[in-house]
Amino acid sequence: MNQTQSPLVSVVLSAYNGATYLAAQLDSIFSQTYTNIEVIAVDDGSTDATMQILHQYASIQPNMQVHQNEQNLGYIKNFEKGMGLANGYFISPCDQDDVWDTDKIRLMVEAIGDFPMIFCDSELVDENLVSMNKKISTLKNLQTFNNCLYFVTDNCVAGHATLFTKKLFEATTPFNTTIAHDWWLPYVSTFFGGIQYLDKSLVLYRNHTGNVIGAVKTGTNKKTWASRLEKKKQERATAKKRLQLFYDKCPDEFIKEKEIIKQLIISYDSFSLRNNFKRVVLYLKYQSYFLAIKKRTVLYKYIFCLKMFFKMR
Fold first, then answer.
1. Higher confidence at residue 97 or residue 214?
2. Are 85 and 43 in contact (CB under 8 A)?
3. Beta pairing partners, 120
4. For the residues 300-304, what does the mean pLDDT come to?
5. How many CB atoms lie within 10 A of CB 221?
6. pLDDT > 60? residue 269
């Protein structure tokens, strides 16, 4: 990192009708032991008191700026807008309803080294910040990653737990709404040195009914057979499009990785007998990449690969 010991970090907060929990998150940001920060809050057209709260904090925090969209962009494009406004050497995305450890930014800046991105663990809590006795590392294998193939079928990097260089962001734009920004960024990061993992839980990741994404599922969701079929159809179409985006972004010099993604795309073309066998073979052969994030037994992973005869992930 060819910067001073305390490079500017841009905390980019995406907000939308988040008045209920927003103050707690902002308090944790402005309590950081790492002080060379700017806070860029972009509201995506809230109809509650979100903007009022943001302006209240900005009125007493000179390093905070507030923006509001004229029309709703959705969380992916809203984050892209905020990151584009960032002046820092590093960017740290921020959700509106979590609470950060006061040392989060300092520890991540100290640990990132020459990696373009770093991420940490998070503790799952309920809406009242009571622990759910789980961390993201309880559910998925978190580690340092150095190959894009880890991310072509799964993701374990939560945006709220990341810090990355502005240069990495610039290499990923424009964001495509088919892929969440916190899946796209780590994928691209593998082409520039990989992703460092900091084995510390530095975020209270609040789970509640208002989560935009990522909430832990606690109840049943009854759907009609027709709606299930339609959902599966949409998921397959999204998976195909996602793989194509991954292939197009993979640099030509990553010959092996690009060829494997190409073969996956071919196998996702249809549920023909040939493609089904091809898909299973690919998953079995490269499961050390495709299933590395899954915290499952060897037997489970083997069965998962066989199930790909009937599925597209």
1. 97
2. no
3. 198
4. 95
5. 5
6. yes
